[in-house]
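Structure representation.

___
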Amino acid sequence: MTDLIDARCMQKAFAVAQSARADGNPPFGAVLADGQGGVLLRAENTVDTGGDCTGHAETNRMRMATKTFPASRLATFTLYSSTEPCPMCAGAIFWGNLRRVVHGLGQASLYAMTGDPPLKLPLGCREVLSHRGQATEIIGPALEEEARSVHAGFW
């Protein structure tokens, strides 16, 4: 974690994940923030209530972001995700031109909590985004114990 702004924004992503859980969805949340930590957009996982397997928090947030901001602005923002983005979400981050990601619970820790899910694609966001050709800063796992607590008892 780089600073207090990142810590505050991660707390906001955890709160969005708690909201997703309270709304009947898996506990994943994402926020988009500017360089001063101002939250621009929030999105929670809507897989269950939306009946859409692509309704991951990060992908939902990227859909909103690309409708709201040009790619040149998105490159200056940070995505804060309660859990490491999956390969699908990393693809959305790539196509949306985000250049900085801070995530909580790492993929390996998530899989350790969920057991052996029937659908598992163990490909980290670093690996997916490393093919971009331009640097993407990825920080995480960050505040992993707090990130883990959002999932406690869910799986």
About this structure: Helices lie at 4-22, 47-50, 57-68, 71-74, 87-96, 107-114, 125-129, 144-151. The mean pLDDT is 93. DSSP finds eight helices and five strands in the chain.
